[in-house]
Design a protein that fits this description.
The protein is globular and about 70 Å long. The chain is built from 21 helices and 5 strands. The protein folds into 2 domains: 54-287, Growth Hormone, Chain: A, CATH 1.20.1250.20; 296-337 and 358-503, Up-down Bundle (Growth Hormone, Chain: A). The protein has helices at residues 16-20, 60-67, 71-105, 110-138, 140-157, 164-178, 183-189, 194-222, 228-236, 238-245, 253-258, 262-276, 305-335, 341-351, 361-372, 374-388, 390-407, 414-442, 448-476, 478-497, 516-524, and strands at residues 2-5, 25-28, 38-40, 57-58, 284-288. It is mainly alpha-helical and 539 residues long. The two termini are 27 Å apart.
Length: 539
């Protein structure tokens, strides 16, 4: 027999005895074929007979840590990244390209142009909590598949919209589908061992950057010849590939355990072990069925009340600032520099309220450069997130964005403007991705999808409001617009510092039936080389 040592990281019910008990050894022999699950009722503690470290029992967290990162996770990274690039990044990048085009082609006033962007976020905002609830109740894979097929269908239909009212409704329905895409991160995170989790979720941002760059390049090729309708249709087609790959995706073993499907959980874990060429723990899988999942009240228990409220504001600020910067980029580039944008808009308004300018080749080139800034943004966040922690990473990202926004008050030329926008976008996109790392880590399995869904919904509130700041308020005062974005991010930096829980070095929590004091003990007593036994564990 090979003896594999692993530790259960950050479980909140860990006692002082666990800290000095040494390492817990689990015997491994090939891939286990006959595993007998131990089923517990709602949130019940593990019986004492299973608390003895010599008994061969394990939880999903233990199996994921023991199997480790391998071929299965690489495949899952590509599939999740494809969803991120095609269903999220490309559809979002369309907004900054489509708005000026329809403004010119259909002679739309500025408020209708802003509404065209906002309606997508209305759809996302209204559906994010719903998709989270579906994912907690019926499975992560189920919610993700439905949302992708929904987005594909209405994304293609929006290319055939004859008038403004039609495209407004259809893009709103596309936004409704996009609201379910963050659940791909929930599914992804639940298959990742602790040491790889932050890095892997951050690397999903690379796929976001690939998707946005691909969308800009597609626009350069398609817009001058085929027009915006073909751009919408072709942008939706990559979703078809993801829809096919969804059949390969397994359901989360953590979800299966919580819903009482122990056989599916064991089969999934054996599949991962086989693909990775790694052994599975020899023994009995501990099961804790919890029927009461995905309830909003669980986000406001004493354990999570402040975490939830602060995260909602952080996600709001992230989306408000990120999408605001995307929209401001096209506005600034069309004006040439910040100082001339107000006078330029006054001149345009004096000539005709419907006068417009199409995006030029130079605008597309600069748009591409600022989009490429997301790559170094990922690398910086990747380097610091496991060094200084999730909270400080988010705070630093907000602060740098705020500082760059204030520097735009100076009458800088186009080159300096591009550099400042490059840095600001790099850090705000990195901060956004840090929030995607932190949120699934801080909530337990029973409410993880709902927690991420509600945070995503609050982000869409920010994204819904931001067009009226970046496009409408900008007409009145460019400086007031910059103050709004800078001030919002400064407050978000403070909120990040006040988050009660730091999830760095902590395993994913399985049960919501925990005491706040125990959570703090489990977090504070984690140290290298210390592992805990099965005593008091829940799955």
């Amino acid at each position: 027999l090979r003896v594999v040592k692993f530790r259960r990281t950050g479980e909140s019910s860990r006692s002082d005895e666990d800290v000095i008990s040494g390492e817990h050894e689990i015997q491994i022999e090939g891939v286990q074929t006959e595993l007998e699950p131990i089923e517990l009722e709602d949130g019940a503690a593990v019986p004492k007979e299973f608390a003895n470290p010599t008994d061969d029992t394990f939880m999903v967290e233990d199996a994921v840590e023991a199997i480790g990162f391998g071929k299965f996770q690489w495949k899952l990274s590509v599939v999740t990244g494809l969803a991120w690039a095609s269903n999220y990044a490309m559809e979002m990048m369309i907004l900054s390209i489509l708005a000026p085009q329809l403004h010119c082609e259909w002679r739309l006033p500025s408020w209708q142009v802003a509404l065209l962007t906002s309606v997508v976020f209305v759809g996302m905002m209204s559906s994010s909590t719903l998709w989270g609830n579906i994912s907690d109740q019926y499975g992560r894979k189920t919610g993700l598949k439905i949302s992708v097929l929904w987005t594909l269908y209405y994304g293609i239909l929006s290319g055939f919209a004859p008038v403004y009212s039609w495209i407004l409704v259809l893009r709103g329905l596309v936004g409704f589908g996009i609201g379910g895409v963050p659940q791909s991160v929930t599914l992804y995170a639940e298959f990742l061992p602790m040491k790889a989790r932050a890095k892997c979720i951050l690397l999903i941002e690379v796929f976001w950057a690939i998707g946005t760059v691909f969308e800009v390049l597609l626009a350069v090729l398609v817009m001058p010849t085929l027009g915006w309708r073909w751009l919408l249709i072709l942008s939706a087609l990559p979703l078809l590939l993801f829809a096919v790959l969804c059949f390969w995706l397994p359901e989360s073993a953590r979800y299966d355990v919580l819903s009482g499907n122990q056989e599916k959980a064991i089969a999934t874990l054996k599949r991962i072990a086989t693909e990775n060429g790694a052994p599975m723990p020899l023994g009995k899988l501990i099961i804790s069925r919890q029927e009461d999942r995905g309830k909003m009240r669980d986000l406001f228990t004493p354990h999570f009340r402040w975490t939830t409220l602060l995260l909602w504001f952080i996600w709001f600020s992230n989306a408000f600032s990120y999408y605001g910067l995307v929209l401001l980029t096209t506005e600034f580039f069309q004006a040439g520099d910040v100082c001339s944008i107000s006078s330029r808009r006054k001149e345009v308004k004096a000539k005709c309220s419907l006068t417009c300018e199409y995006l030029t080749e130079e605008d597309y080139t600069d748009l591409l450069w600022t989009t490429l800034s997301e790559f170094p943004g990922v690398l910086v966040t990747l380097w610091i997130i496991d060094r200084i922690g999730r909270k400080k990473t988010m705070a630093l990202s907000f602060f740098v964005f705020s500082f760059c926004s204030l520097l735009l008050f100076l009458c800088v030329g186009r080159n300096v403007l591009t550099v400042l926008l490059f840095i600001a976008r790099a850090f705000i996109s990195g901060g956004f991705q840090a929030a995607y790392v932190y949120t699934p880590e801080v909530y337990p399995t029973a409410t993880r999808a709902l927690g991420l869904g509600t945070c995503s919904g609050m982000a869409r509130v920010g994204a819904l409001i931001t067009p009226f700041i970046a496009q409408v308020m900008l007409e009145s005062s460019v400086y007031l617009t910059l103050v709004v974005y800078s001030g919002c991010c400064l407050l978000a930096a403070v909120a990040s510092c006040f988050l009660p829980i730091e999830t760095k070095g902590r395993g994913l929590q399985e049960s919501s039936h925990r005491e706040w004091g125990q959570e703090m003990v489990g977090r504070g007593s984690h140290s290298p080389g210390v592992t805990r036994s099965n005593s008091g564990s829940q799955e």
